[in-house]
């Protein structure tokens, strides 16, 4: 989101659970488009609230898995907050070789980009 639309919108990456480390294949395919994830750490919905991010202050939750959609809907049922589900392929465990695994992760990355650009106006070049 920040790569294509800048930092004018407050964005948080949250999951159902905290995996701490970002998958190396994810880091590699995002680096290909100049998105730095090596220092990124994932956190759970519960951690987000513990660290002071109130879900009611957000306008939209984009869920990328059925489990995250269920959790988001549970947490937001008392807020006027939109939850969208984007069916994105989970590349974890796909592919036998490093090249095949990277191809799977690229497909997932590109699916996310496609959803972003379909949801919001065309991205502007960020300098």
Q: How is this fold's topology laid out?
A:
Layout: H1 2-5, H2 24-31, H3 45-50, E1 60-63, H4 66-76, E2 82-85, H5 98-119
Parallel strand pairs: 1-2
Helix pairs in contact: 2-5
Quick structural summary:
The chain has five helices and two strands.
Question: Can you give keywords for this protein?
Answer:
40% helix, 2 strands
Please describe what this structure looks like:
The protein has one domain (2-119): 3-Layer(aba) Sandwich (Rossmann fold). 40% of the residues lie in helices and 6% in strands. It is built from 5 helices and 2 strands; from the N terminus they run αααβαβα. It has helices at 2-5, 24-31, 45-50, 66-76, 98-119, and strands spanning 60-63, 82-85. The radius of gyration is 15 Å and the shape is globular. The relative contact order is 0.17. The model has no long low-confidence stretch (mean pLDDT 85).
> Rg to the nearest angstrom?
15 Å
What proportion of the residues form beta strands (DSSP E)? 5-15%
Alpha-carbon distance between the termini?
A: 15 Å
What strand line-up does the widest sheet have?
A: 1-2
Order of helical and strand elements: HHHEHEH
Mean pLDDT: 85
Number of domains as seen in the coordinates: 1
Q: Give a quick account of the main beta sheet: strands, pairing sense, barrel closure.
A: 2 strands, parallel
Catalogue the unreliable spans: none
Structural class designation = mainly alpha
| Count of alpha and pi helical runs | 5
CATH topology: Rossmann fold
CATH level 1 name: Alpha Beta
Helix content: 40-55%
Q: Which term fits the overall shape? A: globular
- Spell out the CATH superfamily: Response regulator
Overall number of strands: 2
